[in-house]
Design goal:
The protein contains twelve helices and ten strands. By secondary structure, it is α+β, with helices and mostly antiparallel strands. The strands form three sheets. A six-stranded mixed beta sheet has the order 3-4-5-8-9-10. Strands 1-2 form a two-stranded antiparallel ribbon. Strands 6-7 form a two-stranded antiparallel sheet. Strand 4 and strand 5 form a beta hairpin. Helix 4 packs across helix 8. The radius of gyration is 25 Å and the shape is flat. It starts with 16 loop residues before the first helix and ends in a 10-residue tail after the last strand. It catalyses: Thiol-dependent hydrolysis of ester, thioester, amide, peptide and isopeptide bonds formed by the C-terminal Gly of ubiquitin (a 76-residue protein attached to proteins as an intracellular targeting signal). Belongs to the MINDY deubiquitinase family. FAM188 subfamily. This is ubiquitinyl hydrolase 1.
Length: 329
Amino acid sequence: MDDPTNTLTGAFGHCTQELLNLLLTGKAVSNVFDGSVPMGDSGLYLHGVPQRARIGYLTQLEALRYCQVGSYYKSPQFPVWVLGSSSHFSVGFALDARVCEESASARLFQRVQRVFKAFDAMESGFMQMASLADALKQLGVSHEILSDEYRMARLLARLEISSGAGIVLWDEFWKVISVLLHTNDFELALSGEYSANLPTEARPILQRSDSDLARELQAQFDAEERGTPASARSQPPPYVPVQSPMLSFDWFYYNGLGINRDRSNGRRPQLAKCCVTLECATDFIGKSVPIENPGVSGGHGSPPLEEIMKTKWPSARIDWFGCPIPSID
C-alpha cells in the first residue's frame, strides 16, 4: 500500500482498491496503472499493477477521466474483466481467446509507454535528456549503441527538440525508438523512412549513389526534350484505399444486482450479450501515436456500460441485438 495506515476495507465497510487488487493480482497495491511511478525527486513511489493480470479490470472512473487503467489490467491473460461502477462490481467476459491477443505494435507500444512514463512522473508528455540513457537501457537497446559516443550523440540530436531545452517529447521518442527496437537498424530509425508495409529488402535505400542521381536527372532531361508536361511527369500513382480487416466477437455482461422489472419481486440478476466489432490493429511503429487514449469521452457520450467498454476498445461498434443496454448500477 502507498499509505501504510490504510486498511483493506474502507469507511462503512466498502471495498478499497487495495483489496480489489489483492484479489485480482495477489498484490495489495493502491493504483491500477502499470508498474511503479516515482513522485518527482522525493524518493517515494506510487505502486501499480506489477505484471499482466490473469483477470482484468475496467472502471467507470476511467471513463470519467479520474484515473488511467494500465495495459496489465486491460489485456489480461483470460478474457474476463471486473467492471467497477459507482455502486458495485459486475463482470464482463468473452469466449474468444483472441480478445486478449495484442499485435506486435501494441505490445511494443505498451512496453515503450511504461518506460517513458517512469521518467515522466508529472505526465507532461516529455522526459529530460539526462534520463534518456537509462530509459534506453531499460528498453533493452543494445550495449553496442549505448557505449558508442558518436551514435549516442546522433540519437540525442535527433530526439531533442529544436529549441535546445534539454527534453525529449513522447512523439519523437516513440517514432524513433519503436523503429530501433523493432528493426535493430540504427540508421533506419534516425532516417524516419521506416515503412511497415514493405519487407526489409524492399524498403527505400537511405543513401542514393551518384549513378542513381545521374539516371534520375537524365530521365528528367529526356522528358523535357519530348515536351512532356511537368504535371504529367510528377503525377503520383492513384491512391487505392486499403480496407482494414475486422474482428467481431460476442461479449457477455453479468450484473449480480440486475434490474428491477417487477417491484414486487425486487431486483434480479441480469446476463446480457452483445456483439463487439473492432478494426484489427494495424502497424503503427514509427508513426505518431498519442501516449494516452484520446477516445475517452468523459462520460457524456454513450451509455455508462459502453463508456467503460470503450476504455478498452475505443473504436468498438457494439450491437445489443435490439435489447436495452444493461445498467451498471
